[in-house]
User: Fold this.
Amino acid sequence: MDLVSFRKTAERYSVICLDAYGVLRSSTGLIDGALETVRWLIEEGKEVFVVTNDSSRSPEAMAERYAAQAGAELLPAERYISSGLLASQYIEDQIPYGKVAYLGKPESAHYIEIAGKIPVPIAECTPKDNLVAIVLLDDEGFDWFRDVNATLNLIRRVNVPVIVANADITYPMRGNEIAIAVGSLGGLLSDITEKTFVRFGKPDSMMFDFALTRARKLRPNITKRDVLFVGDTLRTDIIGANTFGFDTTLVLSGNTLPDTADLMIRASGIIPTYISQSIAM
Assistant:
């Protein structure tokens, strides 16, 4: 397994799409050198986007969060593309007006509100509430034992669409630790209830197509070959971007560990175009 310099790789592309967790940050803070690299990309004239399965906060809140850590605006809100945006569009177009039960932080309800529906926390819902949908938005902001079981039984009793707004099964924490993400919870609940859920986020091609469309508003003539997608997870970031036609860089600063990366690549058959220790190197 040969590691290459991310900055040397990035010089070959016009558009750089970065995953958030595992590339820019972990659950405990920014990854060393990530902000400096983003600033360098901007100085080099690259179009930079953050393409994330994080549906816990709005793009505006993401922009504010990074600005607070950077000391100034890093990227404007329209450069943050989340799976929550796609889920919100689906809710707006396909779900009738009414109450939507959600699992996640109160901030994550933004994606239900902008879809014109009424968000209600799972803890406040009963099968008699005439719900029009159930949405799994985030893995925080609720009592796991109480609210996950409440969600399970609500799904069993109410015949409405169940939407998983974040397909990630894990996310990186401090050091080499990982935590269960809401995509895993969606998979578990789907298996138990034997119901099919509507899922959004990488590796689905809609995320990558959305990013390309945004990029073409700035540079109409770019092609997929002008885009480099950077992620830390083979089975969401890399396989999704590979399949869509983007070149990819797998970074070893998140879900994929340096000690096991080569084995995981050979076992999965998912081969990134490049491998880097992190975007800072």
Observations:
- The first strand starts at residue 15 and ends at 18.
- The chain is about 35% helix and 20% strand.
- The mean pLDDT is 95.
- The domain at 84-199 is CATH 3.40.50.1000 (Rossmann fold).
